[in-house]
Write a structure and sequence with these properties.
Layout (H helix, E strand, L loop, with lengths): L3 H10 L15 H27 L10 H25 L5 H10 L1 H33 L7 H17 L2 H31 L12 E2 L8 H15 L8 H4 L8 H29 L11 E2 L13 H10 L4 H16 L1 H17 L17 H17 L4 H4 L5 H24 L3 H64 L13 E6 L5 H12 L4 E8 L2 H13 L6 E5 L6 H14 L4 E10 L11 H10 L5 E9 L1 H24 L10
Parallel strand pairs: 3-4, 3-6, 4-5, 6-7
Antiparallel strand pairs: 1-2
Helix pairs in contact: 2-7, 2-8, 2-10, 2-12, 2-13, 3-8, 3-10, 3-16, 3-17, 4-5, 4-16, 5-6, 5-12, 5-13, 5-14, 5-16, 5-17, 6-13, 6-14, 7-10, 7-11, 7-12, 8-17, 11-12, 13-14, 16-17
């Protein structure tokens, strides 16, 4: 019979998958695209909105800059996508920006990239979920007070789905991703056809004006606002690097399939972002940082949120309240939420690679029952949930933390690739290969310069709005990872075998701890005697005179030949007198080994653990720090433990039988 925790785990995660089935989890292109594209494609759902929000600081006067800012984002998006195709081919083993920076710019640059990516992945989950909830609230404003609880529940569902494995999560997310692409493309196409027919769509906010916060901007102030709008629009690039981190997850030839998938993601993202922006300009969409800045807004601006740009375009093209409107809102909300799936794939992969290189705890390199890096998935879910709670699932509050981390990784990765191609050209003699390398080097140089400029712009324009937290977080993560690596290196050096370790101890002194003479104590005595130590002594701490006399009488009555040593404890302590006794033995014979045998109860119910073994647990914890002392627990199973053991054994035999049947073995029912 399966336990309740085990049954719950199976319902959430599914049946365990054998290690030799890892190859069957590799992804074809049609399934890899929704897994790796959800973040990059979902970014276009709010990138245009972010541009309009920043330009609204000048009222309606600065909206003429929208197409030029969007054009800059489109150019950058194309360059970065092509640049990362070079990374995919050069480093098919995965690792993406971290691997490139580590190999070509040194370990420190690699750690900076790793820290930036971990921050970016966490923010991707938080921003994507918060933005998805925004679109849900655009269709159902009554849910606005429950924004944070809905966001936390969404993160829990995403983590649960990803714990079932990459392939399973890809199947679950494929339909929403393709539905979002179809919905946005349909909106763009129908909107364009309406323009050609002379009935252009008009947004519900077209009649609003925007109260300017800075009228008559010119000179450096205008440049600053334009650059700020550009840096906000660059959220459209987030997630574009995800494919380079997960190349090993593709079917072979994995680098070719990953490159094709990355190219498709880039083309789709450019078409969708460009189409949404042009449609928003033509429909005269108005979007402000504060709803109350929209002059003419119907309703209570302090309580009613404004509709997202996507919602306004869908309403203008298909009609508010129509079936296509709700379908597009549902698809947009789903893709924004599922964009977090890219992070749930990338973060655990990166964490596993860093753990393998001893920069993070080794547990992050362990695969779970479904061959996913479960510990990394759980860690990411907890970090994102903390952010959503801290910022109350507000996109406007979280978006200022975004982009800086990913553009740090972009820039260092591109300059790392420039160095990679420089090294290749130094040894390559084939003219065709050299031309190919020079072309790739030029692409990565342009990409590095552009992303470096954007990094500076983002840092300049968003520093005071929250980006400073990322500037603090990345160095802290780098210092933390460096400290973990130093710890593992130090422990590794300490654990190297020495010749002195091969020398046998002079003698082994066995000490059996007894409180009273009962069956667990007798088992510990017989087990200790079976190990044939040089000396064997039973020791007891004398706290109560009556208990001590009873123990001595039992000892004589049962005629136990093992000597009993009583340790006086005037202050009624147990642990300290035993430690003092052991230290005296060690001082008298430093080359001897002390083997301490502690009888312990094995219980079957969790609450019984609080009623037993507390003294033994405290003593064991202290003895672990004593050199030359070995601690052995001698278990005694109580009746409740035997019942549970039989139940677990029966469940194990049934599981083995099911596994054998799946692999074609013949099982005798009488053996189950």
């Amino acid at each position: 019979m399966t336990s309740v925790p085990g049954l719950t785990k199976r319902l959430i995660v599914g049946r365990p998958v054998r290690s030799d089935r890892l190859g069957h989890t590799l992804l074809p292109k049609w399934l890899a695209l929704p897994i790796f594209a959800s973040d990059a494609l979902s970014s276009v759902a709010y990138a245009t909105q972010e541009i309009l929000r920043v330009l609204a600081v000048g009222g309606l006067a600065l909206l003429y800059l929208t197409p030029w800012v969007a054009l800059g984002v489109v150019v950058l998006l194309g360059v970065v996508a092509i640049s990362y195709q070079q990374v995919v081919h050069a480093y098919p083993g995965g690792g993406g920006s971290y691997e490139v920076a580590s190999r070509n710019l040194g370990p420190l640059a690699g750690l900076v990239v790793a820290g930036a990516l971990m921050v970016d992945y966490t923010l991707t989950v938080a921003v994507s979920v918060a933005s998805g909830i925004d679109n849900v609230i655009s269709a159902a404003p009554a849910l606005n007070p429950y924004r944070a609880p809905i966001a936390l529940a969404t993160v829990l569902v995403l983590a649960s789905v990803n714990l079932r494995g990459v392939r399973e999560s890809g199947k679950a997310f494929a339909i929403p991703t393709y539905a979002f692409i179809a919905g946005i493309v349909a909106t763009i196409v129908v909107g364009a056809l309406r323009y050609l027919n002379g009935h252009p769509p008009v947004a519900e906010s077209a009649r609003y004006t925007i109260a300017p916060h800075a009228a008559g901007l010119a000179g450096l102030a205008l440049v600053f606002v334009t650059l700020r709008a550009f840096s906000s629009g660059c959220t459209a690039l987030t997630g574009i690097e995800a494919v380079s981190n997960g190349v090993p997850a593709f079917r072979r030839p994995n680098s070719r399939n990953a490159s094709i998938t990355l190219g498709l993601i880039g083309v789709i993202a450019i078409v969708m972002f460009g189409g949404i922006t042009l449609l928003a300009i033509g429909a005269h969409v108005r979007y402000a940082d504060n709803t109350c800045d929209l002059v003419g807004f119907a309703g209570d601006c302090a309580a009613t949120p404004q509709r997202t740009v996507i919602a306004q375009l869908a309403a203008a093209v298909f009609g508010a309240g129509s079936i296509p409107f709700y379908a597009i809102q549902a698809a947009t909300a789903l893709i924004l939420v599922l964009a977090a799936n890219t992070a749930f794939n990338g973060f655990p992969q990166l964490g596993a690679l860093l753990a393998q290189r001893r920069y993070l705890p080794r547990q992050l390199h362990t695969r779970g029952d479904r061959l996913a890096f479960s510990n990394g998935i759980v860690a990411l879910a907890l970090a994102a949930a903390g952010l959503l709670l801290a910022y109350k699932a507000s996109v406007d509050a979280l978006i200022h933390l975004y982009v800086l981390g990913v553009f740090t990784a972009f820039t260092l990765s591109q300059f790392g690739m420039v160095r990679h191609w420089h090294r290749t050209l130094a040894t390559e003699r084939d003219p065709v290969a050299r031309r190919r390398a020079r072309r790739s080097q030029t692409i990565n140089t342009v990409g590095g310069v552009l992303t470096g400029v954007v990094l500076g712009v983002v840092l300049l324009t968003k520093f005071t709005e929250g980006a400073y937290l990322v500037v603090i977080a990345v160095p802290v993560l780098v210092l933390l990872m460096s400290a973990i690596r130093r710890h593992y290196d130090r422990v590794g050096r300490e654990l190297l075998p020495q010749r002195a370790d091969m020398i046998l101890p002079a003698r082994v002194h066995a000490l059996v701890l007894v409180g009273r003479l009962h069956r667990p104590a007798v088992r510990a005595l017989t087990y200790a005697r079976a190990t044939r130590p040089d000396t064997l002594t039973a020791i007891a701490v004398s706290i109560d005179e009556e208990d001590t006399r009873r123990l001595q009488e039992d000892w004589r009555q049962w005629d136990i030949s093992i000597p009993l040593t009583l340790i006086d404890s005037p202050y009624r302590e147990i642990t300290r007198p035993i430690l003092d006794h052991i230290r005296d033995l060690r001082t008298a014979a430093p080359r001897d080994i002390i083997a301490v045998y502690i009888p312990e109860y094995v219980v079957g119910r969790w609450w019984e653990q609080f009623l037993h073994n507390q003294s033994a647990l405290r003593l064991k914890l202290r003895l672990l720090f004593e050199p030359g002392v070995m601690v052995t627990s001698v278990p005694w199973q109580l009746a409740s433990a035997e019942v549970r053991g039989e139940r677990l054994g029966r469940a194990g035999r049934q599981q083995a039988a099911r596994s054998s049947l799946r692999h074609g073995a013949v099982v005798d029912p009488e053996q189950i």
